[in-house]
Q: What sequence folds into this?
């Protein structure tokens, strides 16, 4: 999860070995923290610039290093050994940044900004905004490589998309939710589509307001 940085990691001393008692990140954890900090600072620098004329494109930004437990669980799910190599080279979301914007256009503006640095390469892009997942999930996902070595996943979305994802995530983990699952899923999907339509209307309204301001 993105709201909770895990700090109780035992330092590891091995690079690629399976270290049941140590960190799956071996001795790379400080570098992961450093790269995350770099990415967060880039977002903050841009926000500062825009705050000067009251047009900060970002509502909030959350960063996290994937918890030991989640990373080990993901390795197992993917049939990978629980090693530093798997965590940092086979999987690409040890470092995660979620950028939440008010408007859809700002999501794409932030995408371009995050990719504009010389030490950043785009490895993969999944545009679940233009092509929503069947359950209604919308978000723009980038996998980037920073400084030629460290992978990070950047999720960019609007406030509506973020609210929906949080609710859906919550429900997915509430295994005891009773009642008609099909109906719940259909309702969730309907909400996602309505929110997407509202996002478009809000974008249009803002464009109209800005158009009038610039006349
Ligand atoms: P966390 O704790 O958020 O990091 P996978 O990583 O295997 O689950 P894939 O195909 O590698 O999936 O990547 P994808 O589709 O880009 O999704 C990665 C992340 O997007 C997930 O991370 C979720 O945070 C988010 N996500 C994707 N689909 C959904 C969805 O349907 N609903 C919600 N609420 N979130 C979604 P993790 O690893 O699950 O967890």
A:
């Amino acid at each position: 999860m993105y709201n909770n940085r895990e700090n109780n990691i035992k330092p590891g001393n091995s690079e690629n070995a399976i270290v049941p008692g140590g960190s799956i990140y071996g001795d790379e954890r400080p570098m992961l923290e450093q790269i995350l900090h770099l990415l967060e600072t880039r977002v903050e620098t841009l926000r500062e610039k825009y705050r000067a004329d009251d047009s900060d494109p970002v509502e909030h930004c959350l960063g996290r290093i994937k918890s030991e437990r989640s990373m080990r669980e993901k390795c197992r799910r993917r049939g990978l050994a629980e090693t530093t190599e798997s965590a940092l080279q086979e999987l690409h979301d040890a470092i995660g940044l979620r950028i939440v914007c008010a408007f859809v256009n700002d999501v794409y503006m932030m995408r371009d900004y995050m990719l504009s640095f010389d030490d950043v390469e785009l490895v993969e892009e999944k545009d679940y905004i233009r092509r929503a997942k069947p359950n209604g999930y919308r978000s723009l996902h980038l996998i980037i490589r920073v400084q030629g070595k460290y992978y990070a996943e950047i999720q960019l979305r609007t406030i509506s998309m973020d609210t929906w994802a949080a609710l859906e995530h919550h429900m997915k983990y509430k295994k005891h939710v009773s009642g008609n699952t099909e109906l719940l899923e259909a309702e969730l999907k309907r909400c996602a589509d309505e929110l997407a339509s509202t996002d478009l209307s809000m974008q249009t309204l803002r464009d109209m307001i800005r158009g009038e301001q610039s006349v």
The chain has six helices and five strands. The radius of gyration is 19 Å. Residues 1, 66, 70, 93, 96, 126, 133, 135, 137, 141, 165, 168-169 surround 0O2 (CB under 6 Å).
